[in-house]
Amino acid sequence: MVEKIQNIRNSYNHLLFDLTVGVVTALFFSAFLYLEHFDITIKALNTIFGIFALALFLYIPKRAVLVAGFFIGLLWFYWIGYSFKYNGVGYLEPFITFAFAIIYMLFFGILAFTNNVAIRALLLFGLTFFEPVDFNWLQLEILFVDSYIGIFKYQFAAVLIALSLVEYTKKPYTFAPLLLLIFAFNFNTPIQKDAPLKIKLVATDIKQEKKWQIETLQPTLQMIFKEIENAISQGYDVVVLPESVFPFYMNLATNVMNRLVTYSYNIAIVAGSLLKEDELHYNVTYMFEGGEYQVAKKMILVPFGEYIPLPEFAKEFINDIFFAGASDFKTASTPTDFVIKGVKFRNAICYEATCKEIYEGDVDFVIATSNNAWFYPSIEPTLQKLLMRFYARKNDATIYHSANWHGTGLVK
User: Fold this and answer.
1) Which pLDDT value is given to residue 146?
2) Is 350 annotated as catalytic?
3) Of the residues 297, 298, 385, 394, which is catalytic?
4) Catalytic pick among 36, 200, 306, 350
5) Within a domain: residue 314?
6) Are 239 and 197 in contact (CB under 8 A)?
7) 16 plus 130 within the same structural domain
8) Model confidence, pTM
9) 277 is annotated as an active-site residue
10) Is 355 labeled as catalytic in the residue annotation?
């Protein structure tokens, strides 16, 4: 197969061929994500596109691998730099976009060290254990989250074995190894229960540039209180509001706290806010029920958003110069569970809901809150939803997700 591709390549301009094949590989690799963004879920297409993407990575020329990685970085993460303008460094946006394209060019670039298909398959499988710059939003197995192929590593390995054996099987049985794909098929439906409570998930749409302005505060509070009152009148057991829906240090806002405590005699309230303790800052979720409240501190921070994944000397410089000291949130050491009306929920704040650590232990239900307005307009909420679906199905969990901008809904 490698020889056939090389023969085709020799019939064209090598640079143009490598560029074209690399872009096509990136498009196949990203197709499921963009189809989902436009509310198109076709399992057969996602299966075919995912298999083709992996097959191309195994067989295409070395330079095409680098091109594919570069464009995957662009197609998946062009939006990361959007949030920088809210820290006063919006001029960095194109540089951040380019940086992530280079990062994923290097990430997949390890495959370009060899043309040996079997070694590439091993390397590609090895990449499923690696997270560049401590950022885990490119999980290779997610290609098949809405397909006929399963999302576990052994199923991903089965796909790679089937595709790579084609190179070593002689005619007329060249494509016979593809029958091994049957071992990668998903025959088991995950057991994902619904919580035995009536839960209202509130979707808000507050623009990030207005969220922290003083003139926006009163309308925001009125909206929140109205949502809670409506949920009470509609007979809900729980109302969930997005991450940092209260854009201030809640523990310093006594009047708001008292009002939520009063509401909590009629309904459990889960809402995002901030916490200040001993001059330390935390991104937190508050849960009010029965006149009492509990605080869950975020455990896993967003790289380059809430912390800098670099050595200490570089961390302090970048934080002070480029983030005005904003990337200095502190964390909890363990996940937090809320027990609401006798039902246990694992708390997850935005990025946490896409991290395996949140699903460790006995986790049937997750309450996730997000503020996706940082990345308006983009595919970020779609990728987040697919990643949450990936982890929910791997762990037989059901996620109740409330978000500002897009993403609110039940994920399973």
Assistant:
1) 97
2) yes
3) 298
4) 350
5) no
6) no
7) yes
8) 0.94
9) no
10) no
